[in-house]
Each structure stands twice: as structure tokens, then as C-alpha cells.
Design brief:
The complex is a heterodimer of chains A (about 950) and B (about 260). Helices cover about 30% and strands about 25% of the residues of chain A. With about 950 residues, chain A is an alpha+beta fold. In chain A, a hairpin with a 5-residue loop joins β25 and β26. By secondary structure, chain B is of the alpha/beta class. Helices cover about 25% and strands about 20% of the residues of chain B. In chain B, the strands form 2 sheets. Chain B has a 9-stranded mixed beta sheet. Chain B has a two-stranded antiparallel ribbon with strand order 5-8. The chains are: A alpha+beta (about 950), B alpha/beta (about 260). Chains A and B meet through α1, α2, α3, α14 and α17 of A and α1, α3, β5 and β6 of B.
Chain lengths: ~950, ~260
């Protein structure tokens, strides 16, 4: 029988969950809700007595101090609505993994009670107050559930779903007899996202064999050839042309590009030949030397499409995926920190203006943050760095970047599969979740995406992955396997396909452990169920490997072997279901040629008139969503776990100021530290993606420098999030951004070690296709020799001097200041590498020499915002003179206070120096644009004197801080 | 000098094991990781160790409630060996998730063996929060507790917390009274100047600002803050401000435990 157990807080206790939901309901603009009461529901099925059920409630499910429970026979249960209000009960859809089930079963076993067959959980929300059923539906839909993974339980509905048996039937797809039109149809109906040319070459391959492909074979090719896995755009031919003024700096010129990646990003690395680059662009992440026998790897991934549809699950599996990239690098790296960067629509965007089929930005943001919090915290990996940007361009396609770095021993950085090695799959079981993720993320979203692609959405189980990671590291150190990779997009198809690309592989699909019966052989092969890794183990070592996994309750199974036949052969209960030539899969894809055009947008430098009082503008920028405090997010991440955190994300007297880069000490035994930072600014891209890319690299590097790091030991990652590359204008911008990366990285002497692209970030809605603003994330990782030399951003002591280092120009194009005025402008910030290199090097030397008390880089909001942040984070006043700032105005006659304060020129820093270090500091910067502009004061005022010496800004730091903290204080 | 042996208990979801082991080694002990399965299956025995440490993390995902499933396992599967360990006068420390496990298994406050008399529930803020907090282990008018782990710590100490379910509550007023009367309150949240804490200084809304308690013997100790995350100067959010000479606040707790355990050698 099935017992229904309801667990709820004792009366009179503070129901934090209910309180939170009540607040969210108010946010929806629904009034009349007096309170929300949350009830956890367990449905326990099996042959157990009522006495045992009581025992389970008392000893396991209900907290005797804070909770009560109600035990029912589910069959005869009928839900009684509260006297005043409604009950909304939310439960998982069949097939969606319920992470709690296994733990409850274990707990019941430990109690010595056998016979439980299944455990399901649900949540009941008692909404008290006068609300209409329409309002109730809207609350459920907007706040309480996502129809892709959950449903509202209607009274009387039985929630247990008997598993269906699967009867094998080999299905073939008729390509040989298919016309071009039909080929297109097959591709779109099957969500293969293959174009006609590609369908034709698949047809040709099978015509030669004189047979039609099985569904499984076609799926395998589609997955291998997907943009997501093959990066057709970056590796394909591009016909590029641009129309720019002759004198314009940063011309790429009309050209035929054979391989965009190799001719820009990878070219930098090849030309720089850094001796400390260990493994670049060949593995799941890039590896550089750290210290002695230990290297460090770093990878940043995107998980945009899933996060748009199911924010919690999308971000959850996004972080889970990039952690597996790290575990699947070389023979496995131990994750030491995470980083997360998001782009959302404005959180206060009006509901009625939302395009149909999209979730509200605030819902997306809350879901994404919880998803990262849940997975990162439960993995015990500190989330130490990030950024959040907002723009209406991200309403339909939010961007979710997740990064992970890991420590890996020198002798474990490379892998090689040998003929005869067994294929072992370890970790979570395979279910129907995540079908078609790889292909689905290679197309545009539409209003229907959430229905047709719902299979691509899933939620993760971090503890499954934690067990897997813990045991994998032990197996690595005992040399129990020869190769490992993660099961990500494309599932086993992608993982086994890559590992066996040279040797060939045979897999018995019926040997793959399943979550539930009913999966077809194809589903098993392409499922993207989370928390799985694929290993290649020597026949003799496989038993020990599997036993080791089992010792910590990790399931592992031998599913086949690497044959040496050069073919991919898939069997199901002895029947051949796929037989493909590896060469065709990996080299058979037809070269596609794309067109790319760039035309400089005609933004005018209209400008504004300079206000007398700069206070209002400064406050407006401090309260802008991009700049304001992200404390609400950061505190939900455990950024201290593993004990390595040195440069914290929240810095200052009250631990609440905005740090630049994060500094982490991954090995307790070593003084060395890793510095991680990011550069991202889509606004510059609206003018010219070339200079956007250069500025992103400059930003990432100056943050490293601001924390005491040095550019010479810094490596970069690129992550492009772009619109549909089949549209020449979108691709034109992407080409310029790539060449901007080459120019900046090459001149700064920093190599790229890995990267990723997420294209097709467009949303088709009522006939119109909306693309995101082309966005490039540059992530930097650097090695700092002595962790105790870390520099923080907050003001330290009254009386200390304030310097500005770096030249300020009238580069207001794409600045936050302009965007606040509704302007874009054309004077986008450029980089001047020769001088910037000198500035970076000098500041790194001075930081290492202990001549710097605090340092903050100038980014969005420029010098004004940077200086104000330093002051209020340190709880000190500051007086500065804008006249003394090294400044090159476009027009000698009109030097402007607002431009000096808010220009976003690159390579600039605000630096605090104690009086005793003044001489050393100034000597260290001789011949460079740097000037003493003011002092820190006891009084809590932030004061700036403008051109001519008249005060143009006087604000109280407490008030500035409040202005900065308020907007996202949820 | 011989080193006391520390058992760092691991299971699915444990994640502060490495830094906890490091802290004990720094304090002069020898720390070993032991997966709970190896104890349940009898491949290892607790008798070999002098200190049992339950580190932070999310044991079994904190499904059902934080620490509940492992607490249940200790109570059902390791009862005798834990009782023998405690009866032998040995030491137990539970940090964060470890504290939740000790409380939910009934080992703390421990006045009625294996019966849960207190709990650690969802923070009043309704969310997981990581922040540095000030704590009193004694001094400043606070009655000195019987806890051997916090013995002699008179000054205000500074440690990070990182949890979503850290609000301490006793089963009733009487139970809270007896915890206070028996001087089992080992650490409390306070403001920087030592005055009574309000949120966020008390980060979760705990009764009587309780951050950690011990059993009547003072040998079993659990706390929500993470002493193992402040055993080196560079871990402090504002390095240097604590003063060059002072040792990091977290290490003294481990040294107390190790010093006490050395007497058993």
C-alpha cells in the first residue's frame, strides 16, 4: 500500500519557506494573501505496517522539535482545502529524478524496515487569504512549479506511475528514398538540426552501404555534427567583409577565413609559446603549471538554453557539467573553485510586456542563483568570483556562464585509450532526461521550445556527483584507468564517440544501468542524464575500479570495449543497432561556408551638457543593476569551503565591498595562490565587437593586477555567446570580436588555453527573431607567488594618498554613463597595449614590494564609481581633485568633470598608498600616466573638486553605500 | 611527543574533511579519513582513535533535513561503537553539518542518550548564508562553559559561518534552561564589541544566540561556525588587522582538543 505523510512546522514557529513565497506573491502584485504555509509530502509505497510507517515518521521524516506529521492511507486520502484560501500541491513529472528518494530509502533501511518499493516527494503550499482561482493558477505557474519537470496534483490523482516494459524493435529511417524536402523534414521532425547539405552527405554514406540508417545511427551523426559538439561556425569557412572608414583603427579587412578559431584565438597561444602552458584546446579544460608537481586547469561553459526554460535545473546542471569537465580533464582534476557570470533581463521588467513563452527575468534570476547555490555548495566547491549584467536583450535568452578550476598532478595531465580497454560508465543511472540537449542548443528557441524540447531540461543531483568525484580521485591516484571523460551534451554517444574516435568501440546498450525500464536503445545512447563519467580501464584493473566505486555507493558498469576496428558498433540484447565508420562520423561532415558582414553602426556622439553637481549621476550609476551590490547572491554561495579563500568576493571593513578578482590558495602546503577574474561588457559590442573584445581582455587583466597578480603568469578563456551565425550580420560581429581577441591577447602576451561558444541565442516570437547582444566573456587565471601579497580594494587608513594610474580619455561610447542617459555614442574605449603593459608590470612589482595599501580597477562607471566603492567599503571619506587626473580630452577647450569621472577608458586603477611609501610608489611609475589626486579622510564625505578647483561632488559615504546596496537587497 | 589519532568521518556529501584534517594536523594530531561504510562494515573501528570529528558538508544531500540521514545511521548502525567511544572518555567534535548530526542523533545536548532534544532549523532569513561572525566562548561576563574544546578562550573570536539550517532551538523552555544551567553553551554569536547580537551578527535567529553547545562532560562539542576555515592568517578577510602576533582564532579550538587527547596517550 501507499502511505501519504505530511510534514509541517509546529504552529507558532516561523515558516521561513512560506514567508519567502508570501513575499514573492506580493511581488507579483497579488494582494490579499495573509500567509503561506508549506507542507512537505512523502508518498511511501511498499509492504510495510502502519506501526512501521509511524516509526518512519517519528524517527526519520519529522523533526521532533520543530515539526508535526500527519499519516494517511494515500488511497483513501482526500485533500481538504483550508477554510480560508487554497492548497496547491506540486509534484515531479514521471521520469524526472527525485533526489530525495534514495536518501529516504536509505534512512528507512537503516531503521531496519524492509519492503519499501518507492518514495516520492511533493510540496503543498497552503495559500491563506482571499484569492481567485485565476490568481491561484498564476501563483502556481509563476512561482511554485515549472511544467517541464513538475505538475500540480489535482485532487484524487494517483501519483505513482507503473514502469512500462520496453519491447525491442529496430527502427530504420528511409533516407535512401527521401527527396531534399523530405530530408529537411526528417531533420526538423527528429530535432536533428542538420542542414540539407549535411543530410545529403549522410544519405550518400548510406547509399554507398546500400541500406538505410537506424534511428540510432542518425541520432549519433546528428549529435557528432551538432554545432554544440563540432563547432561548425568557428572551425568552418567564412567569407568575411566589412565596411569601415579607411583611417579606422582595428580593421580586419575583406578576407576568406578558413578556420576562425585557428586564425585568431588558437593562433595567440601558438605564437606566444608559453613554457607554462601544459595542455591547451585539446581536453575538456586547459591546463597550466601551478607549482612543483601540481598543475591547475580551468574551463568555463555556458548553459543558456536550458536556463531559459528551467532556470534552477538549467543552472544546476550547467555547474554540474563544467565540474565534470574538470573531473574529465587529463586523468581527472580536483575542483578547487567555481565562477559564475550571468546576463538577465531587468528584474523589474513589467509582466505584461513579456514575450509569450518566456519566464520573468526575476524568476529566471532567482532560479539560476538557487541552481548554482545548490550544486556548488553541495559539491563543496567555493564559488569565488562572478558578475551579473542586465539588459532587455537578455529577456528571452538569459546567459549563464559556469566555470571550474581544478588541481591536477603533473603526471596525470594526459590520457590514452588502448585497444582492448573496457568501457566503464560510472555515477548516476541513465534515464529519459536530457534527450537532444546537444542538438537543441544548436538551434534558436521558439515559443514552442518549452514543449518540444522539454526533454532537454533536467535537474541535477549534486551528491551523486560528489560521490563520483571523491571516488574518481582515489581511482586516479591508484592508476585504475587509462582515460576518462564526462558524459555531457550528447551523452554516451558523445563521450564514447570521442574516446573511441581512433580505435573504434563496441557498446552493449542493455548493460547500461537504467533509472527505470522502458528506455529504447536509442534513448539509452543519447540520453544526457547527469552525473555520469565514462572511463577506459585495463581489463585486469576493471574489477578493482568497480569495487572502489562500490565501496562508496557509486554504481559503475562495464558496457563495452574499445575494439580497434575503427567502427562504432552498438548492440542491444545481442542485436546490432548501429554500425558506423568512425572516420565518417568525425571527418565526414561537409565543409560549410558562411557569409559574414560587418557594418559600423551609425551611432552619433550626440553627448549631453556637463551637469554642475555630479552627485546625482554617481548615485544613479551606483544603483544601476550592473554596478550595485550583488551581496544577496554572493552570500548564498559558500565561498570559504576548502579553506583556500584569501581574496574574498566581499571585501572591506564590514565584508561587503565589491572585490575585483578572487584569490584562492588551493594547496594548504604552498604559499602560491590562483587569481581568477572576468571581463565582460556587451555595451561596447553595440559599437564595435572588436574593441569590446579588447576591453574585456583588458578588464580581466587589470583585475588580476589590482589583486597583486601579474600579467606574465596569466592565461585566458574565451566564451562567445552570440546570435544565429547563419545570419551574416551576426557572424560579422563574431568575426570582429575574434580578431579583437587576437590583437589584445597577442599584444598583452597572454595565451588562451580553452574556450567555448554558444551560438543561436535568438528567440523567435510572433514572427520576429530577437538576438541577444553579442556577448564575450573573458576569464583570466593567474598564478600569484605569495598569497600574503594579495591586495584588496577597500580603503585602509585616513591620511593615505589616492593615486590614479592610467590615462583617462573622452571614451564615453558604450559607457554606463551614456546608457543611463539613453545614449550609445561612438567613441568606444580602445586599448594602447605598449603603455598598458608598462603600467601593469609596474603595479605588479609595487604590489609585490608591499608599496600598495589598496587598489581597485576602473570599469563600469569609471573612476567615480571605483573611488566611491573604495571609500565606502573602507568606511572612510575621500577627497580628490579631478584636475590632477591624467586626462587627454578630445578637445582641449572642453575638459569635462563628468567625462573624467565616468569615462570607461581601459588600463586604469585607483590606488591607495601610505605616506611612507609615496617615494617608492612614484619612482616605480616614473614616465607613466599616474598622479596623486587626493587623500583618505576621517570624515565620512566623498568629495571631488572639478576643473577649476570648485567642488562638483559632495556625498556622504554611508548614503552612497546604501544607494549601492539597496537595488538587489532581496 | 606522540600524536592523538583523529577520525574524520566521511560519507556522501561530506565536504570539509580535508581542511578539518589539516587543522588537526596543524594542532599536533594525526588525522585520518574514514568513510562511514568502513565503520558500519567493521573494516575499521572507532576504538583506534582518540578524537571523532564530524566535518561540514551536506551528508546525503541534507535530504529530509540537514544531517538527519547520517544522524539516523549513527543511531541505528554505529550505536554501540559510538557509546563505547564516548564511555572511554574520548572526544567528539561536530562542525556545521557535523553539529547538525550530533544534535539530531541526540548526542547533543546529550542529557538523554540518543533522544533528540534540540534542533537546527532553517535560518530566519530563509536562505543559505556565508558570512564572518563574532563569537564569545567565554569572558565578558559569559559564564564559562564546561566545554574542553573552548577552555581558556577569553577574547571574542572571528569565524565564518556557511549554512542554511543553523537556527538553534531547544525542545522547550525547560530544556533550554537546563542547557544554560549546566553550562553547556560553549559559543554564542555577538557583535564585534561583544554586545548582544542581532541579525546578521546572529546569522540565523538562534535561541539565546547559541552558536555551539557541548554535552555535560564538555567532551562532545558541536558548533555551526567553521574554526577549520580560520587556522591561517591569510584566511582572515582583513589580514593583519587581527595583529601579527595573535594566532588565528580557529586553531585554539583544535589545540584544546588535541592537548586534552594527549593525556590519553
Amino acid at each position: 500500500m501507499t502511505y501519504r505523510i505530511e510534514v509541517l512546522d509546529k504552529p507558532g514557529l516561523f515558516d521561513a519557506v512560506g514567508e519567502g513565497i508570501a513575499r514573492d506573491i506580493a511581488d507579483l502584485g497579488i494582494e490579499g494573501v495573509s500567509g503561506v504555509r508549506y507542507t512537505r509530502i512523502y508518498l511511501i509505497e511498499g509492504a510495510i505496517s502502519r506501526a512501521d510507517a509511524e516509526l518512519i515518521c517519528r524517527e526519520l521524516l519529522a523533526d521532533p522539535v520543530s515539526q508535526d506529521y500527519l499519516l494517511y492511507d494515500a488511497a483513501s486520502f482526500t485533500s481538504a482545502a483550508p477554510v480560508n484560501g487554497v492548497n496547491i500541491e506540486v509534484s515531479y513529472n514521471p521520469g524526472v529524478m527525485d533526489p530525495v528518494e534514495e536518501s529516504v530509502k536509505k534512512g528507512i533501511r537503516d531503521l531496519g524496515i524492509a519492503g519499501v518499493s518507492s518514495v516520492k516527494t511533493a510540496g503543498k503550499y497552503g495559500i491563506e487569504g482571499r484569492i481567485s482561482s485565476e490568481q491561484a493558477d498564476s501563483i502556481a505557474e509563476k512561482l511554485l512549479y515549472n511544467k517541464l519537470i513538475q505538475h500540480v496534483v489535482r485532487p484524487g490523482a494517483r501519483s505513482s506511475h507503473p514502469p512500462t516494459e520496453y519491447n525491442f524493435k529496430l527502427s530504420r529511417i528511409d533516407l535512401l528514398g527521401a527527396s531534399d524536402a523530405e530530408l529537411r523534414g526528417i531533420s526538423s521532425r527528429g530535432q536533428l538540426f542538420l542542414n540539407l547539405e549535411e543530410m545529403r552527405s549522410i544519405k550518400a554514406y548510406f547509399s554507398a552501404l546500400g541500406r538505410n540508417p537506424t534511428d540510432c545511427e542518425l541520432e549519433t551523426v546528428a549529435q557528432t555534427w551538432s554545432e554544440h559538439c563540432a563547432h561548425k561556425t568557428f572551425r568552418g569557412r567564412i567569407q568575411y567583409s566589412e565596411s569601415l572608414p579607411r583611417a579606422y583603427s582595428g580593421r580586419v579587412g575583406k578576407r576568406m577565413i578558413k578556420n576562425l578559431l585557428k586564425s585568431t584565438i588558437m593562433k595567440v597561444t601558438r605564437e606566444l609559446r608559453k613554457p607554462w602552458c601544459v595542455s591547451v584546446f585539446e581536453d575538456n579544460s586547459g591546463i597550466i603549471k601551478f607549482e612543483g608537481k601540481n598543475n591547475i586547469c580551468f574551463k568555463v561553459e555556458t548553459h543558456n538554453h536550458p536556463s531559459a526554460l528551467e532556470p534552477f535545473g538549467g543552472a544546476n546542471t550547467g555547474i554540474g557539467g563544467v565540474i565534470r569537465d574538470c573531473l574529465g580533464t587529463g586523468l581527472g582534476a580536483r575542483p578547487v573553485f567555481n565562477t559564475d557570470i550571468f546576463c538577465f533581463g531587468p528584474p523589474d521588467y513589467p509582466f505584461d510586456k513579456l514575450p509569450s513563452g518566456t519566464l520573468h527575468p526575476k524568476r529566471v534570476m532567482k532560479g539560476v542563483v538557487s541552481g548554482v547555490r545548490d550544486y556548488g555548495n553541495k559539491m563543496g566547491i567555493p564559488t569565488v568570483n562572478g558578475a551579473v549584467l542586465f539588459d532587455e536583450g537578455f529577456i528571452c535568452n538569459p546567459l549563464v556562464y559556469c566555470g571550474t578550476a581544478g588541481m591536477i598532478p603533473q603526471d596525470k595531465c594526459f590520457k590514452k585509450v588502448k585497444k582492448g580497454d573496457l568501457i566503464v560508465v560510472a555515477g548516476g543511472r541513465t534515464g529519459r532526461d536530457g534527450i537532444h540537449g546537444a542538438t537543441f542548443s544548436s538551434g534558436e528557441l521558439t515559443e514552442e521550445s518549452e514543449t518540444i524540447s522539454s526533454g532537454a531540461v533536467q535537474i541535477g543531483n549534486p551528491i551523486e556527483e560528489k560521490k563520483l568525484a571523491d571516488t574518481l580521485m582515489q581511482a586516479r591516484d591508484r592508476n585504475l584507468y587509462r582515460s576518462v571523460t564526462d558524459c555531457g551534451a550528447g551523452g554516451l554517444s558523445s563521450a564514447v564517440g570521442e574516446m573511441g574516435s581512433e580505435l573504434g568501440a563496441r557498446v552493449d546498450l542493455d548493460k547500461v544501468p537504467l533509472k527505470y525500464s522502458g528506455l529504447s536503445y536509442s534513448e539509452i545512447w543519447i540520453s544526457e542524464s547527469q552525473e555520469r563519467m565514462v572511463l577506459a580501464a585495463d581489463r585486469k584493473k576493471a574489477p578493482e575500479l568497480i569495487a572502489l566505486f562500490a565501496s562508496e555507493n557509486v554504481e559503475a558498469a562495464v558496457i563495452g570495449e574499445f575494439t580497434g576496428s575503427g567502427r562504432l558498433e552498438l548492440y542491444y540484447r545481442g542485436q546490432l543497432t548501429a554500425d558506423l565508420d568512425m572516420k565518417f562520423m568525425h571527418d565526414g561532415r561537409p565543409d560549410i561556408e558562411k557569409k559574414a558582414v560587418f557594418k559600423l553602426p551609425a551611432h552619433k556622439e550626440t553627448g549631453n551638457t556637463c551637469p554642475g553637481d555630479q552627485g546625482p549621476a554617481l548615485k544613479k550609476m551606483l544603483s544601476a543593476y550592473d554596478v550595485c551590490s550583488k551581496e544577496w547572491i554572493i552570500r548564498q554561495y559558500d565561498h570559504e569551503v576548502q579553506g583556500g579563500s584569501a581574496g574574498k568576493p566581499l571585501a572591506g571593513k564590514a565584508c561587503d565591498g565589491p572585490a575585483d578578482a578572487a584569490v584562492v590558495r588551493p594547496l594548504m602546503s604552498s604559499r602560491k595562490a590562483a587569481v581568477v577574474s572576468n571581463g565582460i561588457n556587451f555595451r561596447f559590442g553595440r559599437i564595435d565587437p572588436y574593441w569590446m573584445a579588447a576591453s574585456c581582455i583588458d578588464e580581466a587583466l587589470r583585475q588580476v593586477v589590482a589583486c597583486g597578480g601579474s600579467v606574465e603568469r596569466t592565461a585566458l578563456l574565451d566564451n562567445f555567446c552570440w546570435g544565429n551565425p547563419d545570419k551574416p550580420d551576426r557572424l560579422g560581429g563574431l568575426v570582429r570580436a575574434s580578431y579583437g581577441c587576437y590583437y589584445a591577447a597577442k599584444s598583452y602576451g597572454v595565451p588562451f588555453i580553452s574556450g567555448k561558444d554558444s551560438l543561436y541565442n535568438e528567440y523567435m516570437c510572433d514572427g520576429k527573431s530577437r538576438a541577444i547582444p553579442g556577448t564575450l566573456l573573458i576569464s583570466a587565471i593567474s598564478v600569484l607567488d605569495d598569497v600574503s601579497k594579495t591586495v584588496s580594494m577597500y580603503a585602509k587608513a585616513a591620511g593615505n594618498f589616492i593615486y590614479v594610474v592610467g590615462l583617462t580619455r573622452d571614451e564615453m561610447g558604450g559607457s554606463l554613463y551614456y546608457s543611463q542617459l539613453g545614449l550609445t555614442g561612438s567613441s568606444v574605449p580602445k586599448i594602447y597595449p605598449a603603455r598598458s603593459m608598462k603600467i601593469f608590470a609596474a603595479l605588479s612589482r609595487l604590489a609585490a614590494a608591499g608599496a600598495i595599501r589598496s587598489m581597485h580597477d576602473c570599469s563600469e562607471g569609471g573612476l567615480g564609481v571605483a573611488a566611491a566603492e573604495m571609500a565606502f567599503a573602507g568606511g572612510l571619506g575621500m577627497e580628490i581633485s579631478l584636475e590632477d587626473v591624467p586626462y587627454k580630452s578630445s578637445d582641449k577647450k572642453r575638459r569635462r568633470n563628468d567625462f573624467i569621472l565616468f569615462s570607461e577608458s581601459n588600463s586604469r586603477f585607483v590606488v591607495e598608498v601610505s605616506q611612507s611609501k609615496r617615494a617608492v610608489f612614484e619612482k616605480g611609475l616614473k614616465g607613466l600616466p599616474a598622479a596623486l589626486i587626493g587623500r583618505l579622510e576621517e570624515h565620512g564625505q566623498f568629495i571631488a573638486r572639478g576643473i577649476g578647483g570648485k567642488v562638483c561632488l559632495r556625498e556622504n559615504i554611508a548614503e552612497l553605500k546604501e544607494t549601492w546596496q539597496k537595488p538587489l537587497r532581496w | 611527543m606522540r600524536k592523538p589519532r583523529v577520525c574524520i568521518l566521511r560519507t556522501a556529501g561530506t565536504n570539509c574533511d580535508a581542511e578539518t584534517a589539516f587543522a588537526f594536523e596543524l594542532a599536533g594530531a594525526r588525522a585520518e579519513m574514514a568513510h562511514v561504510n568502513t565503520l558500519v562494515e567493521g573494516k575499521r573501528t572507532l576504538d583506534f582513535y582518540h578524537i571523532l570529528a564530524l566535518p561540514g558538508g551536506f551528508s546525503y544531500g541534507d535530504d529530509i533535513a540537514a544531517g538527519k540521514v547520517l544522524a539516523n545511521e549513527l543511531r541505528c548502525k554505529l550505536r554501540e561503537s559510538v557509546e563505547r567511544f564516548i564511555a572511554a572518555g574520548k572526544l567528539v567534535i561536530g562542525i556545521c553539518n557535523g553539529f547538525q548530526i550530533l544534535v539530531k542523533s541526540g548526542l547533543l545536548p546529550g542529557n538523554a542518550q540518543w533522544k533528540q532534544e534540540a534542533s537546527l532549523v532553517i535560518n530566519d532569513s530563509g536562505k543559505f548564508e556565508a558570512r564572518w561572525v563574532h563569537l564569545r566562548a567565554g569572558g565578558g561576563g559569559m559564564p564559562e562553559s564546561v566545554c574542553v574544546w573552548t577552555k581558556g578562550i577569553e577574547k571574542i573570536i572571528y569565524l565564518p559561518v556557511a549554512h542554511g539550517e543553523g537556527k538553534f532551538m531547544a525542545v522547550g523552555a525547560a530544556s533550554l534552561r537546563s542547557i544554560l544551567d549546566k553550562r553547556q553553551v560553549a559559543v554564542t554569536y555577538c557583535n564585534e564589541d561583544g554586545s548582544t547580537a542581532v541579525y546578521p551578527a546572529n546569522p540565523n535567529g538562534s535561541q539565546a544566540d547559541i552558536a555551539g553547545i557541548c554535552d555535560e562532560t564538555g567532551r562532545i562539542f558541536g558548533l555551526m561556525p567553521h574554526p577549520e576555515r580560520h587556522v591561517q592568517a591569510t584566511q582572515h578577510p582583513r589580514p593583519g588587522t587581527a595583529g601579527k602576533t595573535n594566532e588565528p582564532d580557529g586553531i585554539s579550538i583544535f589545540k584544546n582538543g588535541v592537548r586534552y587527547a594527549q593525556r590519553m596517550l
